[in-house]
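[recover] target loaded
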C-alpha cells in the first residue's frame, strides 16, 4: 500500500513564501552593503540560491552565496565550507535550510561561525516544524507546522529531485 502524502505547499505557494521571506530579509538588512546567504547542503543551498535571485531583483545591497556541508549524523561539528570563515567577519549572515525539525542542523551551522565576530546571524527555513531539541529559533520561515514526531516533511525541489516543487507531510 503506497504511503499517504498530504500536499502542504505547491510550486506557486513555495514561490510566494520565498518572495515574502526575501522581503523580510530586505527589511531586516536595508542599510547593509552586502549580506552572505549560507545555504546548508543539499536543499538549504537551493533555497538560498532562490532567495539570492529574488534579493538581487529587489535589494540595494549585494548578496553572496556561501555553502556549508554538514556531517549531520556526527555527534560533533564536522563541516566542509567553500569560503574562508574570516570573510564573514563583521558581516550579516543568513543561515538557510529547508526544514527546521529538531534544530540540530542549524545548531551545527551556527558552529561554523562561532570564532568569527559577525554583525548579525539570522536563520531562514522554508518549513518550521516546531519540534526543537536544540534552542534554535528561526527568523524567517515560509510556513510553521505543528506536527507529531512520527510525521515527516518532504521538500521536493526541481533542481534536485527533477519533480515539480512541493512540500508534503507524510
Amino acid at each position: 500500500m503506497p504511503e499517504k502524502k498530504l500536499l502542504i505547499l505547491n510550486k506557486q505557494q513555495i514561490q510566494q513564501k520565498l518572495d515574502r521571506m526575501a522581503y523580510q530579509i530586505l527589511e531586516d538588512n536595508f542599510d547593509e552593503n552586502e549580506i552572505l546567504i549560507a545555504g546548508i547542503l543539499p536543499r538549504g543551498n537551493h533555497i538560498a540560491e532562490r532567495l539570492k535571485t529574488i534579493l538581487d531583483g529587489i535589494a540595494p545591497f549585494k548578496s553572496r552565496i556561501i555553502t556549508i556541508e554538514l556531517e549531520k549524523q556526527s555527534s560533533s561539528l564536522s563541516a566542509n565550507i567553500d569560503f574562508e570563515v574570516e570573510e564573514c567577519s563583521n558581516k550579516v549572515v543568513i543561515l538557510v535550510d529547508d526544514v527546521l525539525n529538531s534544530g540540530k542542523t542549524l545548531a551545527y551551522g551556527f558552529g561554523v561561525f562561532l570564532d568569527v565576530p559577525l554583525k548579525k546571524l539570522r536563520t531562514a527555513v522554508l518549513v518550521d516544524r516546531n519540534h526543537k531539541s536544540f534552542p534554535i529559533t528561526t527568523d524567517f520561515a515560509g510556513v510553521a507546522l505543528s506536527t507529531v514526531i512520527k510525521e515527516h516533511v518532504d521538500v521536493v525541489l526541481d533542481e534536485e529531485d527533477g519533480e515539480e516543487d512541493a512540500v508534503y507531510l507524510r
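[recover] notes: The mean pLDDT is 92.
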